[in-house]
Amino acid sequence: MRFTLDIKDERHALVRMLASIILQQNEDIFVGDKVPHPLSDTAQIILDADSLCDATKVLQDACAAVVSDMTTILEALDADIKLDDDDMGYTNVVAKWSVRS
After folding, report:
1. Domains of the chain, with CATH numbers?
2. What is the rounded average pLDDT of the residues 41-64?
3. Staple partner for 43: which of 9, 15, 37, 100, CB 3.0–4.6 Å?
4. Residue 83 is inside which H or E element, if any?
5. CB-hemisphere CA count at 13 Å for 56?
6. What does the DSSP assignment read for 2-19?
7. Pairwise pLDDT comparison (87 vs 59), residue with the higher score
């Protein structure tokens, strides 16, 4: 059976992340994502599963993986970045790494 999940106020990033994780966790499931119209603020995840219960479980597992990944990233940023108030009352960001172009 094919299930479609509409995610409001989303374009591409979250649905592509979820679709990618679903594919990593479940190689035998079809999953796709799309934005029905360029001006739409709704994105969709299309998922083939045996039942609604299976589709829900697959999506819950993918959401849990996204939360875990984002938590890891935030913890790494917290460890590498600190805010330092200077004498002029400005807050400076002090990082252990730099961005190169």
Report:
1. 2-95 (3.30.1360.10)
2. 91
3. 15
4. strand 81-85
5. 3
6. EEEEEEET--SHHHHHHH
7. 59
